[in-house]
Amino acid sequence: MTTLAHDRTLPKFGGFSAGMLALELRRLMRNKRTVIFTLIMPAALFLLFGSSGDYKTQRIGDGNVTGYIMVSMAVYGAMLATTSGGAMVSIERAAGWSRQLRLTPLKPIAYIAVKLIVAMLIGAVSVAVAFVVGAISGAELPAHAWIGCAVLAWVCALVFAAFGLFMGYLLPSENVMQILGPVLGILSFAGGLFVPVDQLGHTFATIAKFTPVYGVGEIARYPLTQDGDLALAILNVVVWTALFSAGAMWRFRRDTARV
Amino acid sequence: MTLTASPDLTATGTGQLAVNLDGVVKRFGTVTAVDGLDLRIRPGEVVALLGPNGAGKTTTVDMVLGLSKPSSGSVQVYGRPPQEAVALGLVSAVMQTGGLLKDYTVEETARLTAVLFGRPRSVVKEVLERAGIADIGDRLVGKCSGGQQQRLRFAMALLPDPELLILDEPTTGMDVGGRREFWEAIRQDAERGRTVIFATHYLEEADAYADRVVLVRRGRIVADGTAAEVKALAAGRTVRATLPGADLDALNRIEGVESAEVRGDSVYLHGRDSDAIARHLLTRTDARDLEITSRNLEDAFLTLTADA
Predict the structure, then answer these.
(1) ipTM of the complex in this document
(2) How many separate domains does chain A show?
Protein backbone atom coordinates (compact mmCIF):
# COMPACT_ATOMS: atom_id res chain seq x y z
CA MET A 1 0.00 0.00 0.00
CA THR A 2 1.49 3.25 -1.11
CA THR A 3 -1.01 5.56 0.46
CA LEU A 4 0.90 6.58 3.57
CA ALA A 5 4.06 7.24 1.63
CA HIS A 6 3.99 11.01 1.89
CA ASP A 7 3.49 13.40 4.76
CA ARG A 8 0.12 14.98 5.11
CA THR A 9 0.50 18.63 5.88
CA LEU A 10 -1.61 21.65 5.16
CA PRO A 11 -0.32 24.05 2.50
CA LYS A 12 1.12 27.41 3.48
CA PHE A 13 -0.95 30.59 3.18
CA GLY A 14 -4.22 28.63 3.06
CA GLY A 15 -3.38 27.30 -0.39
CA PHE A 16 -2.51 30.66 -1.92
CA SER A 17 0.39 30.13 -4.31
CA ALA A 18 2.13 31.56 -7.34
CA GLY A 19 1.35 28.35 -9.19
CA MET A 20 -2.38 28.85 -8.80
CA LEU A 21 -2.08 32.50 -9.75
CA ALA A 22 -0.22 31.62 -12.95
CA LEU A 23 -2.81 29.03 -13.98
CA GLU A 24 -5.69 31.41 -13.26
CA LEU A 25 -4.10 34.16 -15.33
CA ARG A 26 -3.51 31.80 -18.19
CA ARG A 27 -7.15 30.72 -18.10
CA LEU A 28 -8.40 34.30 -18.06
CA MET A 29 -6.25 35.29 -21.03
CA ARG A 30 -7.61 32.31 -22.93
CA ASN A 31 -11.07 33.86 -22.77
CA LYS A 32 -11.36 35.88 -25.97
CA ARG A 33 -14.23 37.96 -24.72
CA THR A 34 -12.21 39.07 -21.71
CA VAL A 35 -9.26 40.01 -23.88
CA ILE A 36 -11.41 41.98 -26.32
CA PHE A 37 -13.39 43.84 -23.68
CA THR A 38 -10.58 44.63 -21.29
CA LEU A 39 -7.58 45.18 -23.55
CA ILE A 40 -8.73 45.99 -27.06
CA MET A 41 -12.01 47.86 -26.61
CA PRO A 42 -10.78 50.68 -24.30
CA ALA A 43 -7.82 51.31 -26.60
CA ALA A 44 -10.12 51.27 -29.65
CA LEU A 45 -12.57 53.67 -28.01
CA PHE A 46 -9.68 55.98 -27.24
CA LEU A 47 -8.53 55.94 -30.88
CA LEU A 48 -12.09 56.57 -32.02
CA PHE A 49 -12.92 59.47 -29.71
CA GLY A 50 -9.66 60.81 -28.38
CA SER A 51 -7.11 61.04 -31.15
CA SER A 52 -8.65 63.60 -33.48
CA GLY A 53 -6.49 66.56 -34.49
CA ASP A 54 -8.42 69.11 -32.41
CA TYR A 55 -7.98 67.20 -29.21
CA LYS A 56 -4.26 66.93 -29.77
CA THR A 57 -3.93 70.70 -29.83
CA GLN A 58 -6.40 71.59 -27.08
CA ARG A 59 -4.61 71.92 -23.77
CA ILE A 60 -5.65 70.69 -20.33
CA GLY A 61 -3.26 71.41 -17.49
CA ASP A 62 0.20 70.58 -18.81
CA GLY A 63 -1.14 68.02 -21.28
CA ASN A 64 -3.63 67.80 -24.13
CA VAL A 65 -7.25 66.64 -24.38
CA THR A 66 -6.09 63.46 -26.06
CA GLY A 67 -4.12 62.68 -22.89
CA TYR A 68 -7.19 63.45 -20.77
CA ILE A 69 -9.33 61.05 -22.80
CA MET A 70 -6.59 58.44 -22.69
CA VAL A 71 -6.65 58.48 -18.88
CA SER A 72 -10.44 58.20 -18.90
CA MET A 73 -10.29 55.21 -21.24
CA ALA A 74 -7.58 53.61 -19.12
CA VAL A 75 -9.91 53.94 -16.13
CA TYR A 76 -12.71 52.41 -18.19
CA GLY A 77 -10.49 49.50 -19.24
CA ALA A 78 -9.19 48.91 -15.72
CA MET A 79 -12.77 48.96 -14.49
CA LEU A 80 -13.91 46.38 -17.06
CA ALA A 81 -10.88 44.23 -16.34
CA THR A 82 -11.20 44.22 -12.57
CA THR A 83 -14.96 43.75 -12.68
CA SER A 84 -14.70 40.75 -14.97
CA GLY A 85 -11.84 39.40 -12.86
CA GLY A 86 -13.98 39.59 -9.74
CA ALA A 87 -17.06 38.33 -11.54
CA MET A 88 -15.22 35.13 -12.46
CA VAL A 89 -16.55 33.71 -9.19
CA SER A 90 -20.03 33.65 -10.68
CA ILE A 91 -18.95 31.37 -13.53
CA GLU A 92 -17.03 29.21 -11.09
CA ARG A 93 -19.98 28.89 -8.76
CA ALA A 94 -22.31 28.03 -11.65
CA ALA A 95 -19.89 25.34 -12.84
CA GLY A 96 -19.62 23.79 -9.36
CA TRP A 97 -15.93 24.66 -9.27
CA SER A 98 -16.28 26.52 -5.97
CA ARG A 99 -17.72 23.36 -4.45
CA GLN A 100 -14.91 21.32 -5.94
CA LEU A 101 -12.39 23.70 -4.35
CA ARG A 102 -13.98 22.98 -0.98
CA LEU A 103 -12.65 19.45 -1.39
CA THR A 104 -9.10 20.86 -1.37
CA PRO A 105 -7.07 22.60 1.36
CA LEU A 106 -7.68 25.99 -0.32
CA LYS A 107 -9.10 28.40 2.24
CA PRO A 108 -11.94 30.62 0.96
CA ILE A 109 -10.00 33.73 1.90
CA ALA A 110 -7.01 32.55 -0.17
CA TYR A 111 -9.37 31.98 -3.08
CA ILE A 112 -10.65 35.56 -2.80
CA ALA A 113 -7.06 36.82 -2.61
CA VAL A 114 -6.24 35.00 -5.84
CA LYS A 115 -9.33 36.44 -7.55
CA LEU A 116 -8.45 39.98 -6.43
CA ILE A 117 -4.83 39.70 -7.53
CA VAL A 118 -5.79 38.25 -10.92
CA ALA A 119 -8.34 41.06 -11.34
CA MET A 120 -5.76 43.71 -10.46
CA LEU A 121 -3.12 42.17 -12.74
CA ILE A 122 -5.36 42.28 -15.81
CA GLY A 123 -6.39 45.76 -14.70
CA ALA A 124 -2.71 46.76 -14.82
CA VAL A 125 -2.32 45.27 -18.29
CA SER A 126 -5.42 47.12 -19.45
CA VAL A 127 -4.06 50.47 -18.18
CA ALA A 128 -0.67 49.75 -19.76
CA VAL A 129 -2.25 48.98 -23.14
CA ALA A 130 -4.29 52.20 -23.08
CA PHE A 131 -1.21 54.26 -22.16
CA VAL A 132 1.02 52.69 -24.79
CA VAL A 133 -1.60 53.24 -27.50
CA GLY A 134 -2.05 56.79 -26.18
CA ALA A 135 1.65 57.54 -26.22
CA ILE A 136 1.91 56.37 -29.82
CA SER A 137 -1.11 58.33 -31.01
CA GLY A 138 -0.46 61.77 -29.66
CA ALA A 139 -1.44 61.88 -25.98
CA GLU A 140 0.58 64.43 -24.05
CA LEU A 141 0.95 64.42 -20.29
CA PRO A 142 3.62 65.91 -18.06
CA ALA A 143 6.15 63.25 -17.03
CA HIS A 144 4.86 62.89 -13.45
CA ALA A 145 1.29 62.52 -14.74
CA TRP A 146 2.18 59.61 -17.04
CA ILE A 147 3.11 57.67 -13.93
CA GLY A 148 0.66 59.26 -11.49
CA CYS A 149 -2.42 58.85 -13.71
CA ALA A 150 -1.57 55.26 -14.58
CA VAL A 151 -0.97 54.21 -10.99
CA LEU A 152 -4.10 55.97 -9.73
CA ALA A 153 -6.30 54.56 -12.53
CA TRP A 154 -5.06 51.12 -11.60
CA VAL A 155 -5.21 51.39 -7.78
CA CYS A 156 -8.68 52.94 -7.79
CA ALA A 157 -9.95 50.09 -9.96
CA LEU A 158 -9.88 48.03 -6.77
CA VAL A 159 -13.37 49.37 -6.11
CA PHE A 160 -14.52 47.51 -9.23
CA ALA A 161 -12.70 44.33 -8.26
CA ALA A 162 -14.87 44.44 -5.13
CA PHE A 163 -17.90 45.27 -7.28
CA GLY A 164 -17.14 42.30 -9.57
CA LEU A 165 -16.82 39.94 -6.60
CA PHE A 166 -20.06 41.19 -5.10
CA MET A 167 -21.92 40.76 -8.38
CA GLY A 168 -20.19 37.41 -8.96
CA TYR A 169 -21.62 36.10 -5.70
CA LEU A 170 -24.97 37.82 -6.20
CA LEU A 171 -25.68 36.73 -9.77
CA PRO A 172 -25.36 33.00 -10.32
CA SER A 173 -25.16 33.47 -14.06
CA GLU A 174 -22.77 32.07 -16.64
CA ASN A 175 -23.04 35.31 -18.55
CA VAL A 176 -22.60 37.75 -15.72
CA MET A 177 -20.46 40.10 -17.83
CA GLN A 178 -23.24 40.44 -20.39
CA ILE A 179 -25.23 42.05 -17.60
CA LEU A 180 -22.34 43.95 -16.04
CA GLY A 181 -20.91 45.29 -19.32
CA PRO A 182 -23.88 47.58 -20.05
CA VAL A 183 -24.14 48.49 -16.35
CA LEU A 184 -20.52 49.63 -16.40
CA GLY A 185 -21.18 51.58 -19.61
CA ILE A 186 -24.04 53.47 -17.97
CA LEU A 187 -22.00 54.07 -14.82
CA SER A 188 -19.13 55.37 -16.95
CA PHE A 189 -21.41 57.88 -18.65
CA ALA A 190 -22.86 58.90 -15.31
CA GLY A 191 -19.42 59.16 -13.78
CA GLY A 192 -18.04 61.42 -16.50
CA LEU A 193 -15.66 59.04 -18.18
CA PHE A 194 -17.07 59.54 -21.67
CA VAL A 195 -18.36 63.08 -21.33
CA PRO A 196 -17.23 65.50 -18.59
CA VAL A 197 -20.02 65.74 -16.00
CA ASP A 198 -20.26 69.55 -16.16
CA GLN A 199 -21.39 69.23 -19.77
CA LEU A 200 -24.38 67.20 -18.60
CA GLY A 201 -26.39 69.94 -16.93
CA HIS A 202 -26.52 70.92 -13.29
CA THR A 203 -28.92 68.32 -11.87
CA PHE A 204 -27.27 65.48 -13.65
CA ALA A 205 -23.80 66.68 -12.69
CA THR A 206 -24.81 66.67 -9.04
CA ILE A 207 -26.19 63.14 -9.23
CA ALA A 208 -23.08 62.02 -11.14
CA LYS A 209 -20.87 62.88 -8.18
CA PHE A 210 -22.52 60.14 -6.14
CA THR A 211 -22.02 57.37 -8.71
CA PRO A 212 -19.12 54.95 -8.29
CA VAL A 213 -17.16 55.78 -11.43
CA TYR A 214 -16.98 59.52 -10.77
CA GLY A 215 -14.44 59.35 -7.94
CA VAL A 216 -12.10 56.98 -9.76
CA GLY A 217 -12.06 59.17 -12.89
CA GLU A 218 -11.48 62.39 -10.95
CA ILE A 219 -8.62 60.90 -8.93
CA ALA A 220 -6.97 59.23 -11.92
CA ARG A 221 -7.00 62.47 -13.96
CA TYR A 222 -5.94 64.67 -11.05
CA PRO A 223 -2.18 64.53 -11.76
CA LEU A 224 -3.03 66.02 -15.18
CA THR A 225 -5.83 68.43 -14.34
CA GLN A 226 -4.78 69.46 -10.80
CA ASP A 227 -8.44 70.44 -10.65
CA GLY A 228 -11.71 69.42 -9.04
CA ASP A 229 -12.72 68.42 -5.53
CA LEU A 230 -10.17 65.74 -4.67
CA ALA A 231 -11.53 65.20 -1.15
CA LEU A 232 -15.00 64.50 -2.51
CA ALA A 233 -13.57 62.09 -5.09
CA ILE A 234 -11.60 60.20 -2.45
CA LEU A 235 -14.68 60.00 -0.25
CA ASN A 236 -16.62 58.64 -3.23
CA VAL A 237 -14.08 55.87 -3.86
CA VAL A 238 -13.74 54.95 -0.18
CA VAL A 239 -17.49 54.74 0.38
CA TRP A 240 -18.17 52.68 -2.75
CA THR A 241 -15.25 50.34 -2.03
CA ALA A 242 -16.56 49.82 1.50
CA LEU A 243 -20.10 49.17 0.22
CA PHE A 244 -19.04 46.70 -2.48
CA SER A 245 -16.60 44.94 -0.16
CA ALA A 246 -19.27 44.61 2.53
CA GLY A 247 -21.67 43.23 -0.07
CA ALA A 248 -19.06 40.77 -1.34
CA MET A 249 -18.23 39.62 2.23
CA TRP A 250 -21.91 39.16 3.01
CA ARG A 251 -22.52 36.97 -0.04
CA PHE A 252 -19.19 35.23 0.37
CA ARG A 253 -19.99 34.23 3.97
CA ARG A 254 -23.37 32.93 2.93
CA ASP A 255 -21.82 31.02 0.03
CA THR A 256 -19.14 29.29 2.07
CA ALA A 257 -21.27 28.56 5.13
CA ARG A 258 -21.56 24.86 5.81
CA VAL A 259 -25.19 24.22 6.55
CA MET B 1 -36.70 -2.56 10.22
CA THR B 2 -32.96 -2.87 10.33
CA LEU B 3 -31.34 -6.04 9.16
CA THR B 4 -27.71 -6.52 9.86
CA ALA B 5 -26.28 -9.38 7.94
CA SER B 6 -22.96 -9.59 9.65
CA PRO B 7 -22.56 -7.57 12.81
CA ASP B 8 -18.95 -8.67 13.12
CA LEU B 9 -18.14 -6.79 9.94
CA THR B 10 -18.84 -3.51 11.63
CA ALA B 11 -17.92 -4.23 15.22
CA THR B 12 -14.47 -5.68 14.81
CA GLY B 13 -11.39 -4.39 13.10
CA THR B 14 -8.30 -3.02 14.66
CA GLY B 15 -7.16 0.55 14.79
CA GLN B 16 -8.64 3.59 13.19
CA LEU B 17 -11.98 3.47 11.42
CA ALA B 18 -12.03 5.05 7.98
CA VAL B 19 -15.49 6.45 8.55
CA ASN B 20 -17.48 6.61 11.73
CA LEU B 21 -21.02 7.94 11.57
CA ASP B 22 -22.64 7.98 14.96
CA GLY B 23 -26.36 8.70 15.24
CA VAL B 24 -26.22 11.13 12.34
CA VAL B 25 -29.37 13.11 11.64
CA LYS B 26 -29.70 15.71 8.91
CA ARG B 27 -32.79 17.86 8.57
CA PHE B 28 -33.62 20.42 5.91
CA GLY B 29 -36.46 22.40 7.39
CA THR B 30 -39.18 19.87 8.10
CA VAL B 31 -37.64 17.20 5.89
CA THR B 32 -35.41 14.63 7.56
CA ALA B 33 -32.99 13.47 4.88
CA VAL B 34 -30.84 11.32 7.16
CA ASP B 35 -32.53 9.82 10.18
CA GLY B 36 -30.14 8.40 12.75
CA LEU B 37 -27.44 6.75 10.67
CA ASP B 38 -24.82 4.59 12.38
CA LEU B 39 -22.13 3.37 10.04
CA ARG B 40 -18.59 2.20 10.65
CA ILE B 41 -16.31 1.56 7.71
CA ARG B 42 -12.93 -0.03 8.15
CA PRO B 43 -9.85 0.81 6.10
CA GLY B 44 -9.67 -1.21 2.90
CA GLU B 45 -13.38 -1.89 2.53
CA VAL B 46 -15.15 -1.24 -0.75
CA VAL B 47 -18.64 -0.20 0.28
CA ALA B 48 -21.67 0.48 -1.89
CA LEU B 49 -24.22 2.91 -0.55
CA LEU B 50 -27.30 1.72 -2.35
CA GLY B 51 -30.74 3.21 -2.29
CA PRO B 52 -33.50 4.82 -4.29
CA ASN B 53 -33.48 8.53 -5.09
CA GLY B 54 -34.03 10.65 -2.01
CA ALA B 55 -32.81 7.92 0.33
CA GLY B 56 -30.17 10.24 1.79
CA LYS B 57 -27.09 8.91 0.01
CA THR B 58 -25.81 12.22 -1.32
CA THR B 59 -26.65 13.97 1.95
CA THR B 60 -24.58 11.35 3.76
CA VAL B 61 -21.69 11.73 1.32
CA ASP B 62 -21.79 15.53 1.73
CA MET B 63 -21.47 15.16 5.50
CA VAL B 64 -18.55 12.72 5.20
CA LEU B 65 -16.85 15.29 2.95
CA GLY B 66 -17.53 18.17 5.32
CA LEU B 67 -19.64 19.99 2.73
CA SER B 68 -22.50 20.05 5.20
CA LYS B 69 -22.89 19.57 8.92
CA PRO B 70 -25.17 17.01 10.58
CA SER B 71 -28.11 18.42 12.54
CA SER B 72 -27.11 16.01 15.30
CA GLY B 73 -24.73 13.10 15.76
CA SER B 74 -21.09 12.99 14.79
CA VAL B 75 -19.08 12.27 11.66
CA GLN B 76 -15.42 11.30 11.79
CA VAL B 77 -13.09 10.43 8.96
CA TYR B 78 -9.91 8.68 10.06
CA GLY B 79 -10.61 9.99 13.55
CA ARG B 80 -10.79 13.60 12.41
CA PRO B 81 -13.51 16.12 11.60
CA PRO B 82 -14.35 15.76 7.88
CA GLN B 83 -13.09 19.22 6.87
CA GLU B 84 -9.72 18.49 8.38
CA ALA B 85 -9.55 15.08 6.69
CA VAL B 86 -10.39 16.75 3.36
CA ALA B 87 -7.76 19.47 3.79
CA LEU B 88 -5.12 16.87 4.61
CA GLY B 89 -6.08 14.85 1.55
CA LEU B 90 -7.13 11.80 3.59
CA VAL B 91 -10.41 11.71 1.73
CA SER B 92 -11.31 12.84 -1.75
CA ALA B 93 -14.31 12.42 -3.97
CA VAL B 94 -15.56 12.02 -7.51
CA MET B 95 -18.79 13.96 -7.62
CA GLN B 96 -21.63 13.21 -9.97
CA THR B 97 -21.58 16.36 -12.09
CA GLY B 98 -19.98 19.78 -12.26
CA GLY B 99 -16.81 20.73 -10.50
CA LEU B 100 -14.86 21.41 -13.69
CA LEU B 101 -14.02 24.59 -15.58
CA LYS B 102 -14.36 24.20 -19.31
CA ASP B 103 -11.67 26.73 -20.24
CA TYR B 104 -8.92 24.82 -18.45
CA THR B 105 -7.21 21.94 -20.21
CA VAL B 106 -7.28 18.47 -18.69
CA GLU B 107 -3.66 18.78 -17.64
CA GLU B 108 -4.09 22.27 -16.18
CA THR B 109 -7.08 21.16 -14.11
CA ALA B 110 -5.06 18.32 -12.63
CA ARG B 111 -2.03 20.57 -12.17
CA LEU B 112 -4.07 23.15 -10.27
CA THR B 113 -5.37 20.44 -7.96
CA ALA B 114 -1.80 19.22 -7.44
CA VAL B 115 -0.66 22.77 -6.63
CA LEU B 116 -3.43 23.08 -4.04
CA PHE B 117 -2.45 19.82 -2.36
CA GLY B 118 1.26 20.64 -2.56
CA ARG B 119 1.95 17.60 -4.73
CA PRO B 120 4.80 17.58 -7.24
CA ARG B 121 4.17 17.92 -10.96
CA SER B 122 5.38 14.36 -11.63
CA VAL B 123 2.28 13.10 -9.82
CA VAL B 124 0.04 14.90 -12.33
CA LYS B 125 1.34 12.77 -15.16
CA GLU B 126 0.98 9.66 -13.05
CA VAL B 127 -2.67 10.21 -12.14
CA LEU B 128 -3.62 11.17 -15.70
CA GLU B 129 -2.12 7.90 -16.82
CA ARG B 130 -3.90 5.93 -14.14
CA ALA B 131 -7.18 7.54 -15.13
CA GLY B 132 -6.45 6.75 -18.78
CA ILE B 133 -6.50 10.37 -20.02
CA ALA B 134 -2.78 11.14 -20.36
CA ASP B 135 -3.24 11.31 -24.14
CA ILE B 136 -5.79 14.16 -23.94
CA GLY B 137 -3.89 16.36 -21.47
CA ASP B 138 -3.94 19.36 -23.81
CA ARG B 139 -7.65 19.14 -24.57
CA LEU B 140 -9.93 21.79 -23.11
CA VAL B 141 -12.28 20.34 -20.51
CA GLY B 142 -15.23 21.83 -22.40
CA LYS B 143 -14.32 19.69 -25.40
CA CYS B 144 -14.16 16.43 -23.42
CA SER B 145 -16.90 13.81 -23.43
CA GLY B 146 -18.83 13.05 -20.25
CA GLY B 147 -16.77 9.92 -19.71
CA GLN B 148 -13.50 11.80 -20.17
CA GLN B 149 -14.63 14.46 -17.72
CA GLN B 150 -15.49 11.76 -15.21
CA ARG B 151 -12.02 10.27 -15.62
CA LEU B 152 -10.57 13.72 -15.00
CA ARG B 153 -12.58 13.97 -11.78
CA PHE B 154 -11.16 10.57 -10.87
CA ALA B 155 -7.61 11.77 -11.64
CA MET B 156 -8.17 14.85 -9.48
CA ALA B 157 -9.46 12.67 -6.65
CA LEU B 158 -6.33 10.53 -6.87
CA LEU B 159 -3.97 13.52 -6.62
CA PRO B 160 -3.84 13.83 -2.83
CA ASP B 161 -3.35 10.05 -2.69
CA PRO B 162 -6.33 9.70 -0.35
CA GLU B 163 -6.89 6.89 2.10
CA LEU B 164 -10.60 7.06 1.32
CA LEU B 165 -12.12 7.66 -2.08
CA ILE B 166 -15.80 8.56 -2.32
CA LEU B 167 -17.71 8.19 -5.57
CA ASP B 168 -21.16 9.73 -5.82
CA GLU B 169 -23.09 8.06 -8.65
CA PRO B 170 -19.83 7.98 -10.61
CA THR B 171 -21.03 6.38 -13.84
CA THR B 172 -24.26 8.29 -14.39
CA GLY B 173 -24.55 9.10 -18.05
CA MET B 174 -21.75 6.78 -19.20
CA ASP B 175 -22.34 4.08 -21.76
CA VAL B 176 -21.81 0.44 -20.88
CA GLY B 177 -18.25 0.35 -22.17
CA GLY B 178 -17.34 3.55 -20.36
CA ARG B 179 -18.79 2.21 -17.13
CA ARG B 180 -16.85 -1.02 -17.39
CA GLU B 181 -13.58 0.81 -18.06
CA PHE B 182 -14.21 3.24 -15.24
CA TRP B 183 -14.85 0.46 -12.77
CA GLU B 184 -11.82 -1.41 -14.00
CA ALA B 185 -9.69 1.63 -13.08
CA ILE B 186 -11.38 1.90 -9.69
CA ARG B 187 -10.95 -1.80 -9.01
CA GLN B 188 -7.25 -1.69 -9.85
CA ASP B 189 -6.91 1.25 -7.54
CA ALA B 190 -8.78 -0.42 -4.69
CA GLU B 191 -6.43 -3.37 -4.92
CA ARG B 192 -3.72 -1.07 -3.63
CA GLY B 193 -5.59 -0.94 -0.35
CA ARG B 194 -7.62 2.22 -0.68
CA THR B 195 -10.98 2.43 1.06
CA VAL B 196 -13.78 3.14 -1.40
CA ILE B 197 -17.35 4.23 -0.74
CA PHE B 198 -19.63 4.62 -3.70
CA ALA B 199 -23.21 5.75 -3.85
CA THR B 200 -25.12 4.18 -6.68
CA HIS B 201 -28.50 3.17 -7.88
CA TYR B 202 -27.03 0.68 -10.35
CA LEU B 203 -27.63 -2.55 -8.51
CA GLU B 204 -25.29 -4.53 -10.70
CA GLU B 205 -22.45 -2.15 -9.82
CA ALA B 206 -22.99 -2.70 -6.13
CA ASP B 207 -23.19 -6.42 -6.74
CA ALA B 208 -20.09 -6.59 -8.90
CA TYR B 209 -17.71 -4.18 -7.19
CA ALA B 210 -18.56 -3.85 -3.50
CA ASP B 211 -17.29 -6.00 -0.62
CA ARG B 212 -20.13 -4.63 1.41
CA VAL B 213 -23.51 -3.25 0.48
CA VAL B 214 -25.28 -0.75 2.71
CA LEU B 215 -28.88 -0.38 1.70
CA VAL B 216 -30.40 2.95 2.64
CA ARG B 217 -34.03 3.93 2.66
CA ARG B 218 -35.53 7.16 3.97
CA GLY B 219 -32.31 8.14 5.69
CA ARG B 220 -31.94 4.84 7.52
CA ILE B 221 -29.89 1.72 6.95
CA VAL B 222 -32.18 -1.17 6.13
CA ALA B 223 -29.55 -3.77 5.33
CA ASP B 224 -25.80 -4.06 5.68
CA GLY B 225 -23.65 -6.95 4.55
CA THR B 226 -22.04 -8.54 1.53
CA ALA B 227 -24.08 -8.40 -1.65
CA ALA B 228 -24.87 -12.09 -1.19
CA GLU B 229 -25.95 -11.58 2.39
CA VAL B 230 -28.14 -8.64 1.54
CA LYS B 231 -29.82 -10.63 -1.18
CA ALA B 232 -30.39 -13.51 1.21
CA LEU B 233 -31.74 -11.19 3.88
CA ALA B 234 -34.39 -9.81 1.66
CA ALA B 235 -35.51 -12.78 -0.26
CA GLY B 236 -33.86 -15.80 1.21
CA ARG B 237 -32.51 -18.48 -1.09
CA THR B 238 -34.02 -21.35 -2.91
CA VAL B 239 -32.59 -24.85 -2.56
CA ARG B 240 -33.53 -27.11 -5.42
CA ALA B 241 -32.85 -30.82 -5.27
CA THR B 242 -33.83 -34.03 -7.01
CA LEU B 243 -35.79 -36.13 -4.51
CA PRO B 244 -38.25 -38.61 -6.01
CA GLY B 245 -41.37 -39.30 -3.96
CA ALA B 246 -40.90 -36.39 -1.60
CA ASP B 247 -43.52 -35.72 1.05
CA LEU B 248 -44.53 -32.08 1.04
CA ASP B 249 -45.51 -32.06 4.72
CA ALA B 250 -42.16 -33.53 5.70
CA LEU B 251 -40.37 -30.94 3.61
CA ASN B 252 -42.25 -28.12 5.30
CA ARG B 253 -41.19 -29.43 8.70
CA ILE B 254 -37.47 -29.11 7.87
CA GLU B 255 -35.97 -26.45 10.07
CA GLY B 256 -35.45 -23.18 8.22
CA VAL B 257 -37.87 -23.92 5.40
CA GLU B 258 -40.34 -21.14 4.90
CA SER B 259 -42.09 -22.65 1.93
CA ALA B 260 -41.76 -25.81 -0.08
CA GLU B 261 -42.83 -26.93 -3.52
CA VAL B 262 -42.75 -30.28 -5.27
CA ARG B 263 -42.61 -30.42 -9.07
CA GLY B 264 -42.20 -33.96 -10.34
CA ASP B 265 -38.93 -35.30 -8.96
CA SER B 266 -37.69 -31.85 -8.03
CA VAL B 267 -38.26 -30.10 -4.74
CA TYR B 268 -37.89 -26.35 -4.19
CA LEU B 269 -37.31 -25.20 -0.62
CA HIS B 270 -37.26 -21.47 0.19
CA GLY B 271 -35.69 -20.12 3.34
CA ARG B 272 -33.14 -17.76 4.77
CA ASP B 273 -30.75 -20.39 6.11
CA SER B 274 -30.06 -22.25 2.90
CA ASP B 275 -26.99 -23.92 4.45
CA ALA B 276 -29.11 -25.66 7.11
CA ILE B 277 -31.66 -26.71 4.51
CA ALA B 278 -28.98 -28.14 2.25
CA ARG B 279 -27.29 -29.92 5.14
CA HIS B 280 -30.56 -31.51 6.15
CA LEU B 281 -31.29 -32.63 2.60
CA LEU B 282 -27.85 -34.15 2.16
CA THR B 283 -27.59 -35.88 5.52
CA ARG B 284 -31.15 -36.93 6.28
CA THR B 285 -32.63 -37.59 2.85
CA ASP B 286 -31.65 -39.11 -0.46
CA ALA B 287 -31.71 -35.74 -2.20
CA ARG B 288 -29.10 -35.16 -4.90
CA ASP B 289 -28.20 -32.57 -7.59
CA LEU B 290 -28.49 -29.70 -5.12
CA GLU B 291 -28.66 -26.17 -6.49
CA ILE B 292 -28.78 -23.07 -4.30
CA THR B 293 -29.90 -19.86 -5.94
CA SER B 294 -30.56 -16.44 -4.54
CA ARG B 295 -32.78 -13.85 -5.99
CA ASN B 296 -30.79 -11.07 -7.58
CA LEU B 297 -29.93 -7.88 -5.80
CA GLU B 298 -32.68 -6.06 -7.60
CA ASP B 299 -35.29 -8.22 -5.90
CA ALA B 300 -33.62 -7.59 -2.56
CA PHE B 301 -33.46 -3.90 -3.28
CA LEU B 302 -37.12 -3.72 -4.12
CA THR B 303 -38.14 -5.81 -1.13
CA LEU B 304 -36.06 -3.89 1.36
CA THR B 305 -36.71 -0.41 0.06
CA ALA B 306 -40.40 -0.79 -0.64
CA ASP B 307 -42.68 1.17 1.61
CA ALA B 308 -44.07 -1.34 4.05
Answers:
(1) 0.85
(2) 1
